[in-house]
Write a structure and sequence with these properties.
single chain, about 170 residues, mainly alpha, two-stranded antiparallel sheet
Length: about 170
């Protein structure tokens, strides 16, 4: 007969309300808000705005927006910064290339390699992303209050900083 597990807490709320789960929900809510703002931004190229509005652009595509260097990045660098496999990142880059967000260009330091770079459309997308993130952060501050927002931000920075191998590229 199996032994019944002993839990320190008789309620099981901790399974749904622990910090990691709350952080995950908060991140998904924040990313969804950013994508919604971008879908309704007149400065986002219309084709991309339509893709965002139809939920074709996902949080996975945001990895490219977050991690692609302004001077471009190799696929392996981009994948590592986003915490993805090269194959998964390659698929995202191919899709973003088809949408006109990025192009593949020769790497000046290695003729065999290619660099992923923002296109002009991609740079417009990036500027819109910057504004959408700023607005979503302002909405967060308004919803929870400036003091709480500051504490949350400082706490998350400290917590993320506890992992030196974590890539924090902007």
């Amino acid at each position: 007969m199996a032994k019944k597990p002993i839990f320190s807490n008789t309620t099981q709320d901790w399974r749904q309300l622990h910090l990691g789960r709350l952080l995950g929900h908060a991140m998904r809510r924040f990313d969804a808000r950013v994508l919604h703002l971008m879908a309704n931004n007149d400065e986002v190229p219309l084709a991309l705005s339509n893709l965002a509005a139809r939920a074709q652009v996902s949080a996975a595509h945001i990895h490219i927006t977050r991690h692609l260097g302004l001077q471009g990045s190799r696929l392996s660098e981009l994948a590592q910064a986003a915490g993805m496999t090269k194959q998964a990142m390659g698929d995202l880059v191919t899709q973003c290339e088809a949408w006109g967000l990025v192009t593949r260009a020769p790497d000046p330091s290695d003729a065999r390699a290619r660099r992923i770079v923002f296109s002009d459309t991609g740079l417009a997308w990036l500027r819109a992303f910057e504004r959408a993130v700023a607005q979503a952060e302002a909405e967060f501050r308004q919803e929870v209050g400036a003091d709480v927002a500051t504490v949350v931000s400082l706490g998350l920075e400290a917590y993320a900083g506890a992992y030196p191998d974590l890539e924090l590229n902007s």
